[in-house]
Design a protein that fits this description.
Elements lengths: L1 E3 L2 E3 L12 H4 L5 H21 L3 H8 L3 H9 L7 H10 L27
């Protein structure tokens, strides 16, 4: 219920269940790629935060310009490929493992799963 002045009104809000991928829900092209990049950036930013590195030292360690580092920190990932994000993780002295498992022939949908180390 919403109170407006001395009147109480009921407002119905439509809710739609998420697919689990906000990029798919927003009908953005290549939603799995965007979700994968977002997860990788979250991992990178988490490693940096936990390591206590300053932004300047982290950017230098990753060989990124100030604007590239800011884009990564802000989740502006269009200029980063999945491969380049994996390389950044390696530059932070972390191991990257990729596991591919089969899908049934009747379900051609692919999904990339990433486990965060923290």
């Amino acid at each position: 219920m919403i109170e407006r002045g001395d009147k109480m009104t009921e407002e119905k809000i439509e809710v739609e269940k998420s697919s689990g991928n906000v990029f798919k829900d927003l009908e953005i092209p290549n939603p799995e790629e965007y979700l994968t990049k977002a997860r990788l950036a979250l991992i990178i930013n988490g490693i940096i935060a936990e390591s206590g590195l300053t932004q300047h030292k982290a950017a230098k360690m990753l060989d990124l310009s100030k604007s590239e580092f800011s884009a990564l920190s802000d989740g502006l990932l269009d200029d980063f490929s999945i491969e380049s994000l994996f390389l950044l993780i390696r530059k932070l002295d972390c191991k990257v493992e990729i596991v591919v498992s089969g899908k049934p022939a009747h379900n051609p949908t692919t999904e990339i799963s990433i486990l965060m180390p923290f």
